[in-house]
Amino acid sequence: MPPWLYPSLLPAYAAALGFGYLCGSIPFGLILTRLAGTADIRAIGSGNIGATNVLRTGRKGLAAATLIGDALKGTLAVLLVYYYYGSEYRYFAHELALPTAAGAFLGHLFPVWLGFKGGKGVATYIGLLLAWPAAIAFCLIWLAVAALTRYSSLAALVASAATPFALWLMGHRPEAVLFALLTVLLWIMHRANIARLVNGTEGKIGAPSGA
Predict the structure, then answer these.
(1) Counting Cβ atoms within 10 Å, is residue 116 exposed (0-12), middle (13-18) or buried (19+)?
(2) What is the DSSP string of 23-43?
(3) CA angle (101, 72, 99) in 5-degree steps
(4) What is the spatial distance between Cα 184 and Cα 186, in angstroms, rounded to a whole number?
(5) Are 172 and 181 spatial neighbours (Cβ–Cβ below 8 Å)?
(6) What is the full per-residue pLDDT of the chain (211 aa) written as tens digits?
């Protein structure tokens, strides 16, 4: 049995998952809009706490700050765990990065503080990828699809679907499996957007949208 599969290490994996979840569940969209004195973001537009809905307040700076916060909370969760263990247990730290990433993504989607109603996960997904080179591939694909179709949601769906393959080709096999699971969750969270894309009613970039 590989050392990283020893049952004695399960508490460490559980702790990494929990730490990631707590970091991911920080609702930057809600916190920043509250501090700025705007209306409750959950009562605006789609009711989502992500950057897209924050943009509907008309505050582009708040939306940008939310995007950055939602991305970096995933990045920092993974890096903190990795560097905490990395000096002495580099391979084990690498393995712990995976449950930390999973926890951060789940925390953003289902934050305990908000009745498990969070965001759709795109920013946090990208933030987690910053710990691996595939973030560049995701962004390039997103930009290409968004430029061709002007559908932000479609760009995110296509880029996320391609991400596990990109990771696999780069030799990051465990990460590819993890991001395949995260991609499934991201698609589930975008099910309303998918329905509107099929019906031709999804809002385009630069146009009003009810998403």
Answers:
(1) exposed
(2) HHT--HHHHHHHHTT---GGG
(3) 10
(4) 5
(5) no
(6) 455 555 667 888 899 999 999 999 999 999 998 898 887 888 887 778 888 888 888 788 888 999 999 999 999 999 898 887 765 555 666 788 899 999 999 999 999 988 898 899 999 999 999 877 788 889 999 999 999 999 989 999 999 999 999 999 988 888 999 999 999 999 999 999 999 999 988 888 766 544 4
